[in-house]
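Journal club prep, notes for RB
We'll compare a predicted complex against what the paper describes. Inputs for the zinc ion case:
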Amino acid sequence: MKYRIFFIALLIPLTVYSQKKPAKQTMVKVQKTSLSREQEMQLGKEAAAQVEREMDVVKSQEVETWLNQIGQQLAKTPQANAYPYYFKLINEDSINAFALPGGPMFVHTGLIKAADNEGEVAGVLAHEMSHVALRHGAAQMSKQQTWGSIFGAIGALGGALGNGGQCTLWCQAVQMGAGLGGNSMLMKFSRGYERDSDLNGARMMAAAGYNPIELGNFFQKLEAKQGTAGQPKGLEAWFSSHPSPGNRVTYVSEDIQFYPKASYPTSTGNFARVKQTVASLAPPKLKPAALVQQAQGGTPRSDLPQGFKDYRARGFAIVYPASWQAGQPQGSGSLYVIPQGGAKQSQNNGVELLTGAMIDYYVPQSGAATPDAANLDKTTNEFLQSLAKGDSSLKADKPARATVGGKAALRTKLTTKTSNQTDQVVYLYTVPREAGLWYLVLAAAPTQISEFDPVFNQMAQSVTFPEGQN
Ligand SMILES: [Zn+2]
């Protein structure tokens, strides 16, 4: 209640400016980091590609244009530190927005829904852009000791960066536990960094012609909703990555007193229309990376074959022998379901399947149709060709019709060699799904295949897909 009264008081600017002026304006500094600007941008680019794989980035020309209109006004200010910022919309109802090192920024639809005016959205952009401009993510990364040797190695690799064969900056960041999401080192900031981003963001807003107090207002408004019945989705996560450094409105107001007297006329005038567009968007589509993740809650299947366990992902379920292990290496990417010793670290820091199962989605080349029963042969063939490109020993039999999880599927027998040059037999099941071509790989040495066949059949037959998902 206290906050609400205070918030109403803020609507009268005089209240804000009548605050006592501190003797000196607070200094905000750009953090030191061992990453060069080029490395920061490379890291951000790779992390952004990962965001696009994991989340439903909306192709709404109208909203994207609007975000960029606001963002580019802010980007022109000296406080933005001349990074190549760009702005995209994520179809996700939780409150969130984040900027990656070097400038890619993503805004959730939930955040636009929670905002009451364009200035508040500009405030969030300015705050997030300030984390980039002040190099907060990069500074946190380079505090990790391992970076020293990693960057030594990368220097030696030179042009090999990002060309597929080597573990890229982002791949190494993930191995260090950076990843995406609320706990990521790239996005979770200390209270000191939060305050610096608020102050730098407020200065950025004023320089771009937005009323800087909106930045403090929006954060404070969300803080007031914490723990209430009307708490928006994702608010806890939002504040765990942007911890409150104290009364934001107070110290932003104090800072504003040092700005040259100005009016704040900037506005696209399109906020109401954009809000309508955002409200009318279809529900988000789950992307492959999310569909492979283990489902939370729900009831496990009870009719499992003896000695088998159930793995329930968001996009499918499969059983596997109780003595095996199921998981995603480094917390993301393909699902491996393997017996002891069934996989090994590959040369390019990936994971190579030796014996057991691997499950993921193949997304057809951009522009190609969503996989469906009608183009199953074609998309499977495209997938086989892409596999053959990376594996010169691969030989494929003619795909045979099969049924997986009640859906039309193909089963293709392949032979190849592991990186140890031992022979390998692979059964590949492919099923068309909306998010991509779902596939199950079952692999074993030819000498062991008759031993594994019953297990493999049991696994393939156990697959189900959730109702209502295509
Ligand atoms: Zn922050």
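Talking point for the session: Residues 37-54 form the longest helix (18 residues).
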